[in-house]
Amino acid sequence: MKLDQSATCPHCGSTHLDVERVYETTHNGARQLFRCRDCAEIFSETRGTPMEHLKSPLSKVAGVLRVRSEGLGVRATARVFGMHKNTVSDWEKDFAQQKAPLMLYAVCHEFISPTFEGDELYTVIGKRGEPSRSEGWTAVVMERASRFIVEQRCGAKDAQLFESVMSTVAAYLEQSGDATFLSDGERRYGNTLFDLCAEVLHEGRRGRPPRVLPKGAKVRLKNKGAQASKPGRKRPKYEAPHREHPHTVQDLDSTDIHANHVEAQNAALRRRNSAFRRRANTYAKCKAGLQRTLDVHQIIHNFVRRHWTTGKVPAVVLGVIEDALCLEDLLTMRLA
User: 197: domain CATH number?
Assistant: First the structure.
C-alpha cells in the first residue's frame, strides 16, 4: 500500500509519515494507519474527517446526506434507511463542520469585482409565535454571477445576526478591494457593513473628516413595499444608504439593482430544506438544528450540486476549485 502524499499529522502537522499497518474494515475496504516520524503518534487516514469512528458504509452516509439535501425530513430519512433519527442528525453535524475550512479557503481566493445580493427568509422554530421574536430568521448573502452562497445564518432578526453575516462580506471586500452589495428593502445590511469597514476620508479641509465606505465598495438599496404609500418626503427607489468614497467608479445601472437571484435561491431552499416546510410537527425544533441544515445545504450548493442556470458548481464558476466535488470526497477529506 502506497503512502498518501497529501496526508499530514493531525497532532503536529508534519508530512513525515510512515505506514504503520493496513487493516480491513467491514464496509469500506482497506484503510491505513500512519505513524508520524516527528511526534510518534499513530492515527487512521479517516482522522479528522466526518467518517472518523463511523463503521457505516460511505455510500450510505452520502446517500443520507443526499436525500436530506433534497427536502426529506429527518424522521422520514431514518425510516427510509432503517436507522435512528439521531444518527441522521449526528452525521449531518459532523458533515456541517466542513463548512468553516471550506469557506475560509474561499475567502482566501482572489476575487475580481464580485456582486453580492442579500435577503432574508423566515421559518418557525418550536412553537409558533410572533415572527419578530422568533429565532427562525435566516439571512442569506450570495454572489450574483456564480450563485456562490457566501453566508447563510439563522437567529433572531437583530443586529447580532446581521453583523455575523456582514462580517463575512467585509472579509471578501477586504480581499477583493472592489465589490458591490445589493439589497431589497433591508437597510440593516448596508448599515452593518458601513459600521464594519467604513474609513475616514481626509480631504485637507477643516473640521472632522467624514466617514465613507472603502474605495471600490458600492452599496445599493432598492426601496419597495410600504415606502411608496407613506406620507412626507419620498425616498428614491434606488439609493446608497451611506456616503461612498469619491474615487469609487459609479457604474451601476438602475436595472441591475435587485436581489432576484438570491430570492430565487430562497425559493429553492424552501423546497430542499424540510425545516422551511410544514412536513413535521414543527418547521424546526431548535436554532442549532436549523443552522445545521443550513450549513449542510450551503456546502452541497457551493461545492457539489451543479446550478441549473450556469450548468456548473458555484465554486467552480467562482474559481475557488477546478472541478466539482462529490459527497464521498467531502466525507473523506480532512480540512481542519
Answer: 3.30.420.10
